Amino acid sequence: MCKEIYLDAPNIGRLEKDYLSETIDSGFVSTFGPYISKFEEEMAKYMGAKKAVSTQSGTAALHVALYELGIGKGDEVIVPALTFIATVNPVIYVGAKPVFADVDIKTWNISPSEIEKRITKKTKAVIPVHFYGNPCDMNEIMDIAKRHNLYVIEDATESLGAKYDERYAGTFGDLSCFSFNGNKTITTGGGGMVAGNDEKKLEHIKFLINQARNESKEYYHPEIGFNYRMTNLEASLGLAQMERIDEFLIKKRRFHDIYKEELKDIENVYFQEEYEEAQSSWWLSCVIFGNSIDIPLLQKELKNNGIPTRRIFMPVIEFPPYENYKKRDYKNSYYIYERGLCLPSSTLNSEEGIYKVCKMLKNILLKRGEGKCVRSI
Ligand SMILES: Cc1ncc(COP(=O)(O)O)c(C=O)c1O
To answer: pTM here?
Structure first.
C-alpha cells in the first residue's frame, strides 16, 4: 500500500505524548508552570541568544516586538512584498505604515538594495523575513540598518535552525520572532517567541505579554499589556520537539537535496538559492517553473495522485487593505508567486515518498511542460 505524502504536517511522536500527558497529570495546563521557562531557556541556548520569551503566536511576537521598540504612528517599516500576511499586519496594529520592498529573484528574500531605495526620514525599522527558512543577507541588512539608524526585527517564524555566517537566524536583529504553528519545523500546537540579546527589552516584553502585571503587587497593572502568553501545555510539546530538532533539520535538508538532484535535468525548474554564507532550514522546499505550465492545473494533477502542494504566498500588496500600495514595482515577488510551488516537506515523509513526488512531477512535466520558457532566471 502507498504511504500518504504530507505537505507540512507536524511530526508528533511518543516523546511529545509523554510530555503532554505528564503536563496534564500535573494540572499545570495553562499559562503557569515549569515548562514555559524551560522552553524559553532551551530556545535561547539553542540559538545562542541571551533571552527568549514565549508568546501565543508568531503574529503576537511580531506585534509585541514592534510595540516594545516604540514603533507607531508616523513611522515607516520596510517589509518584503513577498511574505505571509502576518509579517505586515502587526505594523498596522501599532499604527505605523508598511513600506514594501521587492525580493531577490534567487534567494526570494528581501533585497538589501531595495531596502535602501525605500528608506525615508520616517523609516524606523526593517523586518527581514527568512523566507521558507532561507536566511536573508544579514551582514548587508545590518550594515544598512546601522548606517540609517534603523531597528531590525527578524521575522524568523519560518527559519528555526537556519544559519547565516555560522550564527543562527534570529540572532542578528534587535529582536527576532519565531512561530511554532502546526506546520512549522517544530510546533507547540500554536505559539511563538521573541528572542534577542537585549535582556532589558525582553524582560519588559515578558511583563507586557502577561497583561503588564506587576508581580510584586497583586493584580496591579502599571502599563497597557497584552495576553500573549504561551501555555505550559504548549511549552511541554515544544520542549519535546526541541529534543528532535536535529532529526527534523537533517530530514528537511535531505528532502531538498533529493528534489534538487532528481529535478536537475528538467528544463526551466529553479530552486530557491542560499546566500554563500547561509544554510537554510528548508522549512519548505519550493520550485519555480520558468515555463508556461499552468500551475493550478499542475497542482490539481499532483493532488489527484496523492501529492499535496501549496502556492507561494500572494504578494501582500494584492490584498484589499494594502491595495493603495503601488503594485507592479514588485516584479520578482509577482514572478515567484505566479510561477512557484511548494512541494511536500513534512518530516513525516520518507525519502521514498519524496522520490515518488519527483517521479510524478517529472512524468507530468514531460507530458505537458513543453511550453516555451517565459523567463529564465
Ligand atoms: C513569514 C511569517 N510571518 C509570521 C507568521 C505568523 O506566525 P503565527 O502563525 O504563529 O502567528 C508566519 C506563520 O505562519 C509566517 O510564515
So the answer is: 0.96
